[in-house]
Write a structure and sequence with these properties.
This protein has five helices and four strands; from the N terminus they run H-H-H-H-H-E-E-E-E. By secondary structure, it is α+β, with helices and mostly antiparallel strands. The structure holds zinc ion.
Amino acid sequence: MNNFRYKMAQFFVGRTGVDALGRTVTWAALILMLLTMITHSNIIYLLAMACLGYSFWRMLSKNYQKRYNENQLFLQKTVRIRGFFSRLIPNIRNRFDGLKRDYQQRKVYAIFKCPTCKQKLRAPKGRGKIEVTCSKCHTVFIKKV
Ligand SMILES: [Zn+2]
């Protein structure tokens, strides 16, 4: 057996470990440290150290019930902001997929406007000169695609 891992596991028995609150505070500490490097601000540095200290202390705390309650409270208070972020990521992905679809369509379809009403129209590319009937005003015109 791996003795070190066993000892580590023993060490963490009955301790809180890393939960959502702990993870957030650790991220906050990392971001604050990054800000310290940019701004050289002592206050931000102290905040970073406080966050880091707090996250370690929480992780090693043996008062599991109390830490659990804190975490639950944290999850309750941040339900809206977490919802915002969990919606934001699929939104970005959808928009990206939309752009990709447009790009793929541009390869297959010629996109042009009706000369009369400026309605956006499209036709499959590579057919040469075609007779187009506008879907909106029914103007018929010749278009090379
Ligand atoms: Zn038209």
